[in-house]
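User: what does the whole thing look like in 3D?
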Amino acid sequence: MPAPTSRAVILGGNRIPFARSNKQYAKASNLDMLTSTIDGLVARFGLAGETIGEVAGGAVLKHSKDFNLTREAVLGSALSPTTPAYDIGQACATGLETVVSLTNKINAGQIESGIAAGVDSASDAPIVVNDSLREILLELSRAKTLAQRVRIAAQIRPAYLAPQAPSTGEPRTGLSMGEHQAITTAEWQISREAQDELALASHQGLAGAWDEGFFDDLVTPYLGVSRDTNLRPDSTLESLAKLSPVFGKRLPTPATMTAGNSTPLTDGAASVLLGSEEWAAERGFTPLARLIDAEAAAVDFVDGAEGLLMAPAYAVPRLLARNGLTFDDFDVFEIHEAFASTVLAHLAAWESEEFGREKLGLDGAFGTLDRAKLNPLGSSLAAGHPFAATGGRIIATTAKYLKETGKKRSLVSICAAGGQGLTAIVEAA
Amino acid sequence: MSMLPVYAKAVLKALPFGTRPGTDLPDRTIGRSIAIDATAYAGFAKVIEAPLRDVVHPGYLHVLAFPLSMQLLSDPAVPLPLVGMVHIRNRVDVLRPVRIGDVVDFHVSLAGPYAHPSGTTIDVEVTAQVDGETVLTETTTYLAKGKRLAGAKEQPQPEREDFVAPLPTARWRLDPIIGQRYAKVSGDYNPIHLNGLAARGFGFPKVIAHGMYTASRALAAADPRLESYRWDVSFAKPILLPGTVGFAFTEGARHEAADFAVFDPAKGKPHVLSSVTEVAAPTSSA
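Assistant: Here's the predicted 3D structure for the full assembly of 715 residues, as structure tokens:
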């Protein structure tokens, strides 16, 4: 039972090229990148000075001063300052959730147009003082007399001054995302070769799309960068095979996850223009596709009962069952490559009789998808993954791909921190 | 209440080092009544990374009874020196939830001394009551290593199973000031947790984490959602600071009756082994 009324259509997108962290965008803040990305979209669609129904955005690594990040970006953009905006947070699913949320609002008739966006900087990241110093500073701000202040300040020790750098660690386990995925990789016995092959395919797919000019109307150059800087068109299986493992070195099984088959920390932003069919028609915009339905899932990874990034393996079967679809009904599978082994573990789970029976409650395996339809234009392994920007990148890419190729249906799947996953069906308009 | 005078007294009593004649422990019970203060409890909860709820972590009740334990153990009549005693086991029966604002009456007494393969142990018995109803009982076992007392009672020793380190499902990076932070919220200023020189004086190459810090944090991670339960802890190798330790369940799962371990992820040696078992709540008030 998809949305009763599907008025909302995907009209296009704009992003800045993604750059590896601490390189070209090192000095750009989330606000800078998000504003530039929205401005690029506004320029492409001639929306300067217009009031959009609502802009939804978000960032995973967020400064406390950016409590109203998206609204601030709107105020700094060419959009009318009377455009409302709100922030969303669902870790790496943030970008896709902005699309889902605005689509629902348009379908509900609450708004006629929306811009879904996401941004992340792993370079200009918030650094916080450690808890001991933070407690003392807060106590200090509550102190009323000089004597109290002196007594409280005297508690500060040199060791307290070391800042806490941001990490991709899970708060409840202290393990990084890579360490978590390494456990899943070992459990599903995903080979090094299979991971490197997927990484290579990602680079080749993305390089081909850039060479064909596919991104000409989806990307606006920024700070002298005109292509995703993580892209290695000349990667080979041999060069990937030479890289040393970086995750899973503490496990009893051989470590297989390298910098080549894992997504690097990346800076970037992406946006998607959404509107009702009527709104689009009034402005002469051609609908590319529509988001038909979405399903989120979460797993209990805390004690290791399930892998941190395995939630999409549960969300997709539910989403497809609700819509009466099987893998055979899809022309494209856009599965976010947090790590090559994440995608391969999802595929393995869907192909597993045991997982189908015991975890999904089915009679057997859920199904096998046609690998030729997987991430045809590459994905995060090649493009990089500025956390909240990935959803917008994928939706704009797959919507345009469906329109251009005349294909019908795409499955989008994004895993996220906290054991979550968000999946969606996109159909050509 | 600061523990510094108690430690100072304990050090004095330990001179000259050795055991006292006689084996009888003082048989008095001492007590105090304390209202659970929200701000003080919040500080404790933060350090052990427990969620700040209205129900108080049982490790905090241990902390509140701790000065009484030290007062009894440092009594000149105790035939063993407090300094150098090692906390080897802890058993808590949580019978009723204790909430912020509850006024808790603590009664503390000593039991033993008991013969132990490595020396002599003394138990500190704590009973905590709210409105005359027993909410928690605790037995804290201290070992005086290498000290033998002729009259020490025999006691069956809990069997130590061979520990096989599981894959850690969580990793805790313990910074060097965790000893200071826990001292501040627990009042346990034992210098082996604060000062490298003092730690070396007791044979540790570096400062070590408070055992009850590690145990309380592990219980917070296990987060039992049981009406009443027994929380057993056995302390193995001390954690040197700074350090990184692994945490994992060896039996059961979070929120349930379970066994869980804090261990050295590289060497596979246990630091703190804990178990939570469900016990029937008392039907009538004590």
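In plain terms: The radius of gyration of chain B is 18 Å. Strands of chain B lie at 30-35, 86-94, 103-116, 119-130, 133-145, 170-174, 229-235, 243-252, 258-263, 270-278.
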